[in-house]
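Two proteins follow. First one:
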Amino acid sequence: MKIVILDGYPATRGDYDYDFLKKYGEVVCYPRTPYKLIAERAKDADIILANKIVIDKPIFDKLPKLKMIAMLATGYNSIDIKTAKERGIYVCNIPKYSSPSVAQFTIALLLEITNQVGLHNDSVKAGEWANCPDFCYNKTKQIELLGKTIGLIGYGDIAKQVAIIAKAFGMRVLGYRRSGGNDPYAEIVSLDYLLKNSDIISLHCPLNNESDKLICNSTIEKMKDGVIIINTARGGLVNEEELTENLKSGKVLAYGGDVLTKEPPEKDNPLFSCPNAFITPHLAWATVEARGRLMEIMESNIAGFVNGKVINNVW
């Protein structure tokens, strides 16, 4: 059996390696693979490991031996699932491995907006406190979370963990999910109610035809003036041009985004022109601990396939 890892670096980053997979067969690892080289590198593969690599029908057509795609991520929108299912090629993802880390990072973005610890640390080290006539000062308005309402769009495992943390801050928590229902940590409400009643809106839904550019002029218009928006889910959930307009007008107080529509981004991404947009390079999932869980679950997926008991297949 041949295992080809097409974009192996993001999951390892010097903390892990793929040597443990050699027990299942030959392993070939590429840290990165451009689209034009996928077919050549994976032509003899029984199993492909992929993170953000695009495997579409033209690529499938050139991989006659392929039997399984083991994702190095929870998301699998980069894979043509319809074609994979038609050909009986399993696509096994890694659910919930990063939920604690992404929930933590969601709150980190929120706290950066409300308190801007980094800015004040830089100010102190630049001598501004030493030169201050008073015993304290602040460069930005400090915002307390107690009593604020946070709305979580897409109420799955990550959102539930965010809800638990938000409750500890004394916040009211609203959640929206298409299936409705009840939850002990959040009031499950309609999307329209959430948009109108939240001081902070955090995105945790998958990117699909219904959610594409969900945050746009028409939805922002329903929100409170001075709303804070957080996105640790998918960049495509946001219309970046229209969000930029609302950040500049003040309708949206601030935006914290760990994801962008195009990654890596263009240098002229409109959000980069907004001082009230706090952008990080898609690292919410990437704690050492979360990547360790990713490796463990990925191996379980491969072991299940090898032993005829496929798990976490997405179709």
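Second one, unrelated to the first:
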Amino acid sequence: MIIFRQIVHQIKQDKLSFSEDDLKRSIIRALMYLIIIIVLHVVLMVLFEHFHWTDGLWLTLTTLSTTGYGDISASTLPGKAATIVLLYIGGIFLAAKIAGDYFEYRASIRTKKMNGTWEWGMKDHLLIINTPNQHGETFFMKFIEQLRSSGIDDCNIEILTEKFPQGLPSKLSKMSGLAHYTGSALIQEDLAAVGPEQAKYIVILAKDEQDINSDSRTFDILYRLKQMDVMQPLILAECVDDKNREKFKEMGADIVLRPIRAYPEMLVRGLAAPGSEQIIENLFSAEGEHYLRYDIQLSGLQWKNIVIKLLEKDFGLAIAYIDINTGALITNPLAHEEIAASALILMSNDNHTIAGIQDILNALQ
């Protein structure tokens, strides 16, 4: 399968093979022919029209540039024939050929950028490897919006994926600082093309968030990055099977997360504040922290006193309350704020004492 992908990759490159080197070779070759035509026409003007060589050069250049001042012109039949053959047919054709090659080169660049075959040469960028199987455009839109609002707004983004060979979806293509490269991280040339060693962050998405076999692919990518001595970037990898977490970290992943596609915020938190993503991830797990609600009315108490008194009893950490007047959930209030609550929400774990309502009331007296 990998060999087949490499063959397809090479065919794709050949179809878009008009490179900068091709342009240079074409221009150099055309200029050489143009110089020969200019010299030959000047010589013929001296022989047939008996011009001084400077007049012959003036006539050649003004005719070749299609300016045509008319102050000097060929009057003999051989001179006119030489001008028609060398300048009108040969010279102007070569000038047009150079211009055409340049525009073809520019069009080739645009096509390569659109199809994801252009090597951007980014530095200090965010490299995303793979694309979600479903709703990839929506996922990336939410991810990038969260990223831009998290403080990581000066970082260009490059996606290495096989999903968009015809170009990024319209909404993604309009986002500034976003590019993609069509390829697979399992092909060394493709991986090298996106400059992982120059990246600031690398995010490896699970190929299929429901298939534990995706972890073997992610492990392979981590191995390839390690072989390339990619040490600088912060590497975040999604792991379908929790048993593989430590293996990923041993292979160089700094952060390992479960793939929860509806919440790309977890990935953003991991990049912006490493460690905080674990708190968010635990919300989706029955293990670790528990979030308990106590429907009790509290008033006239400062938030800091509630937090301290409950911690002293090992009941857990008070993280929010329900406002008795508005019914709104208030998280992380100010320390000296006096609250009026209809319910209190605590975060605890297996080491804390599971308290009842009366226990909470007694602790807060």
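SUMMARY FIELD: The mean pLDDT is 85. Residues 129 and 204 are 5 Å apart (CA to CA).
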